[in-house]
Design brief:
With about 500 residues, this protein is an alpha/beta fold. The protein has 17 helices and 13 strands. Strand 5, helix 11 and strand 6 form a beta-alpha-beta unit.
Length: about 500
């Protein structure tokens, strides 16, 4: 072990605040800075090969071409890019990402998009159909999630914007009705990182609380975290990392008793759990049937099977929703208002979402949910039969598994070699699979279990092998210098924008 590894090992045992102070001093030391930069260079070189597979053989536009290229040529190149590496989701090799994927469904949505490609909800006088579609999307989603005649909401560009808007709404509501100037959000550590983004953007404090052995929010910890500045409590249905549902009945009741907001993040589960409940699966309360729930986010572009770029944020009543809106009354450009963060928005996406929901209908969503949950049961059984692995929590269809004897990130690498695009998790180290209709195709579950069994056997037989992404995941999971990890992520984003 070199001096750097020894130092990092000692840091991992210290108080996080002290670690941050020591880290700042360490990074100013020239030898430490050189070591970090050297490690960055090696990691980025490895990553560039994986994120830029089209560096050779395809046209690259670093500036506008002097003469425009032909449309036929552009279409041919796009088709070639699509076929080369970007179609493995069709066979069910990808976690999440594409949730429906049937060619007839895609063709139908593309036709709808083409009809409304110029539509912009900002100009509701020019495209009144956009308002029709969006109001009905909100109404259908609210009815599905236990809403009543007072339940309302807006469409957004995705789960992150839904969460951002809900937290902004609670901030402004609490400031106006309670005089709270330093608003706080209480959320389990497993709640989506979009809540951290909301706290950063809107200058709110987020208090992260621990989870229990079942990976659900620790109710007593949530209760202890509440104070006079708390404006909202958050629960997940289910949480992304482990696919389990927080104790939302108890958590939302805490919020109701204190007269504060409770947000159910059902971005993943909003279009699955209502149908799972009807199918007889154990689904705890999570929606507006609970009096303490005051807002819900649900992604139509996930298990609602709409095109990417659509979500819904719902509120118990219009009085609360109005705190989400932006209005300007004194601008020389005229009266201005916007229900969400964006001004101009692609109305075609709203048309596509509406079309997806009404063409699928209740029976279609029920059948899709049945297929996904039955597939999940097969895969959970297969994981349970591999002694080196253990499933985290008691999930329905968002599955995560860890290992007490193997480097689980090595298993992730081995699965990648077999074409599987899965997600690595931290705290604890685990691998994540969000099941979709792509995985419900015949033979996919069996293939996944067999490939996973072979991957585990390979890692078990060769425990000292290194390479792939395992070292990167391992470093990010264990390195106490969190700004180093943050810097690495920022450099990764830089890499994505590199021509």
């Amino acid at each position: 072990m070199d001096w750097m590894e020894f130092a990092l090992g000692q840091l991992s045992r210290m108080n996080p605040r002290l670690v941050a102070l020591i880290e700042k001093r360490l990074r100013a030391v020239p030898s430490v800075k050189r070591k970090i930069e050297s490690d960055y260079d090696g990691i980025m070189a490895e990553l560039e090969r994986s994120v830029k597979p089209y560096r050779d053989g395809f046209f690259a536009a670093a500036r506008l071409p002097a003469e425009g290229r032909s449309r036929d040529e552009i279409i041919r190149e796009m088709e070639a890019l699509k076929q080369r590496e970007e179609s493995k989701w069709k066979e069910g090799f990808v976690s999440g990402a594409v949730y429906h994927g049937d060619e007839r469904h895609i063709d139908f949505l593309n036709r709808v998009y083409a009809i409304h490609s110029q539509s912009n909800p900002l100009h509701s006088d020019v495209w009144p159909s956009a308002a029709k579609f969006e109001s009905e999307i909100v109404a259908m989603t609210a009815a599905m999630l236990g809403g009543d005649s007072r339940t309302c909401g807006t469409v957004t560009s995705g789960g992150t914007e839904s969460i951002l808007l809900a937290m902004k709404t609670y901030r402004d509501w609490a400031r106006e009705t309670k005089g709270i100037a330093a608003p706080e959000i209480v959320a389990p550590v497993t709640a989506h990182v979009a809540f951290d983004k909301a706290a950063q953007y809107f200058r709110m404090k987020i208090v992260r609380t621990p989870i229990d052995s079942s990976c659900r929010a620790d109710l007593s910890a949530v209760k202890r975290a509440l104070n006079r500045n708390t404006v909202a409590i958050v629960g997940s249905a289910p949480g992304f990392p482990h696919g389990v549902i927080d104790p939302i009945p108890e958590m939302s009741e805490l919020a109701r008793e204190r007269g504060i907001g409770f947000h159910t993040d059902a971005c993943l589960g909003g279009f699955v759990l209502p149908w799972a409940e009807r199918l007889g699966y154990p689904v705890p309360g999570f929606d507006f049937r609970l009096q303490g729930v005051t807002s819900i986010s649900a992604d139509t572009h996930k298990y609602g099977y709409a095109a990417k770029g659509m979500s819904v944020v719902l509120y118990r009543n219009a009085e609360l929703r109005r705190h989400q809106y932006f209005t300007a009354t004194d601008w020389p450009g005229g009266l201005y208002f916007s229900p969400t963060i964006a001004g101009s928005r692609p109305g075609a996406l709203s048309a596509v979402c509406w079309a997806a929901m009404v063409t699928i209908g209740e029976r279609g969503y029920m059948e899709a949910t049945r297929k996904i949950l039955e597939t999940a049961s097969l895969i959970k059984k297969g994981i349970a039969e591999i002694p080196e692995l253990r499933l985290l929590g008691d999930p329905l269809w968002i599955l995560s598994f860890a290992s007490d004897s193997l480097d689980i990130y090595r298993v992730l690498d081995e699965m990648a070699k077999k074409k599987w695009a899965l997600n690595g998790l931290h705290k604890p180290a685990a691998v994540h699979l969000a099941l979709t209709l792509r995985h419900a195709q015949p033979g996919v579950a069996e293939r996944f279990v067999e490939d996973l069994r072979e991957a585990v056997a390979q890692v078990k037989a060769h425990p000292d092998e290194r390479g792939g992404m395992a070292p990167v995941y391992g470093m990010a999971a264990t390195l106490p210098l969190r700004t180093v990890v943050s810097d690495m992520l920022k450099r990764y984003i830089d890499l994505l924008y590199k021509v």
